[in-house]
Amino acid sequence: MMKCAGRIQLRDRGQTCQRVGKRQVRKLSCKVSRHLIEKRLSIDFEHLKLTPDYAYFAAPSAFEEMSVAYDDSIGVEVSSDSFWEVGNYKRTVKRIDDGHRLCTDLMNCLHERARIEKAYAQQLTEWARRWRQLVEKGPQYGTVEKAWTAVMSEAERVSELHLEVKASLMNEDFEKIKNWQKEAFHKQMMGSFKETKEAEDGFRKAQKPWAKKLKEVEAAKKAHHAACKEEKLAISREANSKADPSLNPEQLKKLQDKVEKCKQDVLKTKEKYEKSLKELDQGTPQYMENMEQVFEQCQQFEEKRLRFFREVLLEVQKHLDLSNVAGYKTIYRDLEQSIRAADAVEDLRWFRANHGPGMAMNWPQFEDEEWSADLNRTLTRREKKKATDGVTLTGINQTGDQSLPNKPSSVSSYEKTQSYPTDWSDDESNNPFSSTDANGDSNPFDEDTTSGTEVRVRALYDYEGQEHDELSFKAGDELTKMEDEDEQGWCKGRLDNGQVGLYPANYVEAIQ
User: F-BAR domain: from which residue to which, for each copy (predicted)?
Assistant: First the structure.
């Protein structure tokens, strides 16, 4: 046992290893005097339920390096969980550390919610993109198609709002809590907080005088009870000795003196007990006042945290409540208007005019020669196109000083030449725009498609074919020009899917 610079260290020589349960502990081979350890370290081994040999392993730091500091709670038995009991102020001190942890928990809570908002927004956007493509390429047409796609527009707009919620939670609420936590709690070198140490020191200082007197009361009480017990034993021995004729008068006199001495000890210990208890009672009001003062300081610190949490949660509520956002109500008002604008009668009328009995028909007439009739029909169709407003264009980009008008198309996506995805039909024979006709001929034209030099070209603008022998493509699509431009400005080409047809020559450019 060595004492150095106010610290006590225990050095053992020749240690052995011994397994106790599942843990490896070191047991001192040298027997250390229980009396010596109790005297130097003031440890009550009976209270700790430990033997001197194993006390080192229960708290090795207490032996290896222990600061000889006074602990108010040593030797004082706590009879209840009352705040006024010695050491029970630690729950109030712990609340300060809990406040720091709760700030961290609230930040983690908001961070997790922000991730959920972001994931939900991304899923809405992906869902809207996928289903918009399916609807636009599908057989639905007319005003009902517009109403259907309005649902996808709603999802895209709501997705933007949820991204705003995510940004508000992280950039405003999260940062606000982080800054408040940093300002309210000040970490020290040893890892604890300054506020926690101040509260701990305040309570210990307020409780130390009263705890010292309480310890004296407990000692006086213990001594008095021991004296009373000794008195009863002495009286019992004296009574038994009177009935024993073998005892001489001298022995009997000793027993009587013992009884008298025990009675005096009882009176002395009782007087001391009552005196120490009175002193404790006199110091109790000051003790309560000092403890109350430190407790109120802790209450004020906790009140700031509680009020701050309430303020932050109200801000979170405002950010999460989309019903208070003006744009949120507008989204569903626009959606309702789009759906109510759907008109079944109008859609049926459009389908009748474009795909039913309302369509124009070149009824068979007498033809002198087949090649002449075909040429006349082709010329008639080309002249008719030049006399009308022109072909329907979508997504036109201006090039230099030349621009082409973007005329709104009344033709539904039902007329698009792309083959329908398998989601809509599993019968390819129902597609009127398939690259293969009913007879299995992949070329709807009679002439040879391999004549001339084939050139790869790229579409400059979107084009939707107006007749069955015309191609449809989007700006940026690549196709193969099979024949040069004719006198009417049309070229013959082939799409990558094998479909062959006509297209305006000035809608494409050669790929360099």
Answer: 76-347
Q: Parallel, antiparallel, or unpaired: how do β-strands 2-4 and 7-9 relate?
A: antiparallel
Measure the CA dihedral 108/114/120/125, to 10°: -150
What parts of the chain have a pLDDT lower than 70?
1-79, 369-452
Closest by Cα among 428, 426, 447 to 436? 428
What is the tens place of the pLDDT at every residue in 416-431? 434 444 444 444 444 4
In a domain, 384, yes or no: no
Asked whether 485 and 509 are in contact (CB, 8 A), the reply is no
Which helix (DSSP H) or strand (DSSP E) does residue 60 occupy? helix 60-64
In a domain, 367, yes or no: no
- Judge contact between 262 and 231, C-beta under 8 A: yes
Q: What is the CATH number of the domain that holds 116?
A: 1.20.1270.60
Q: From CA 96, how far away is CA 188, in angstroms rounded? A: 14
274-291: burial string, b at 16+ Cβ within 10 Å, e else: eebbeebeeeeeebeebb
Q: What is the count of structural domains for the chain?
A: 3
Q: Would 133 be classed as within a structural domain?
A: yes
